[in-house]
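TL;DR need structure tokens for one chain.
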Amino acid sequence: MLYIKEKTLLKYALYCNAIYISLLFLFRPDGINLEKIFISSFLAFSVFGTFAICFRNIQLLKNLSKNTRRLFYLLMFWSTVVVFRSFSLSIQDWVTNFGNVYMALAWFTPILIVLGQKIDNWRIFFQAIFFMFSLMVISLFFLPFHLTAGKLKTEWSWLLRPINFVLLTGGIIGFKASIRFLIYITLLVYIIIAVLTEQRLEFIYLTMVLGLIFIDKLSQVKLRKDLLKLSFFSALVLTIAIFTYGYENLNNLIMSIVEFQDTRVFLYNELFENLNTFEKITGRGSLGTYYSYFMEHTKHYTVNVLNYEWWGDSSTRITIEVGYLQMILKGGLILFILTAYFMLKASYLGIFKSNNKFVKRLGLYIFIISVLSLISFRPAFTPTFILLWMAIGTVLNKKNRLMTDEEVNNLIKIN
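>> reply
TL;DR here they are.
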């Protein structure tokens, strides 16, 4: 009976996360009021439900190697330090820290590694994903028909991004006709929202997913393995080059070979110019900010030269669009290295050391998020990162990697 209650709690906790996000982009509450409190209550239940189950099942971490467990505890300890460094007596700070998916909750999301230990939990996660898709199909009717490209907030894509995860894994599991129809409709909605938000990232994400699926389906085993190894180690070299040789230097080198436009150089430059040596190592805490010269100059030009109302961010920014830079801003190189370790190790084990296709595709998903975190995907308590840490937990468990395709399908297939 306890097992059933636990599974039910997990399902509704994930549902509440989806409801919170949908209400967030539909109503966009501001300040502290009854509307904001009501909407935030769904986030609170989601956090309570998922974290409570994780702590209740913490003993499942014994399935991991001793060194992996130690590094996980170190990651959670440092995440706690990151959050408590921003402790204050201000109510507004508490609301921002624990009511914003980019702040404290983002750094506690790795606890979901615990849920990933039991591969049958994925059945509930897939049910939650299809619930998200249903919400987004319904939400499409609330879109103003006069909207043009670039006028829609990016939050609209948060519940749609898991379509990439489903495309990666769905062909392995197999779904009934009604679910496949929902997947096709959701993919169409995802493309529409990507156009309206003018997010090139969504098309890069989708292209990477389809490209890796194509490689993974190649009939020639040696060619398939070689291409996957080339992709993995190229991404690893690229990541190392960015944080040693420098993003701007690498960008200039590439531009000397092929002409293209990049919008991330100033983010890397500004952040590292803002941080001193100690802050680069430890960060500035979950409410840490940095000063953006680019935003200040753009605001000045927009308001004083063009005489337009300013629509962009404040020059004092509490978040930064690039995932790895967000980690460094909040928790320094310590947080970045610990997180990157889990992401890269799990993607390698999943892709190259798995005995079943599902866990292998989880490795591909982790790999894609690892690469995209170089240009976007700041950590948040949203479906993308809930799925990420769940996937990392599943892959790191050797028992899951040794399962056969039939064993996995029997545990997670949705009837």
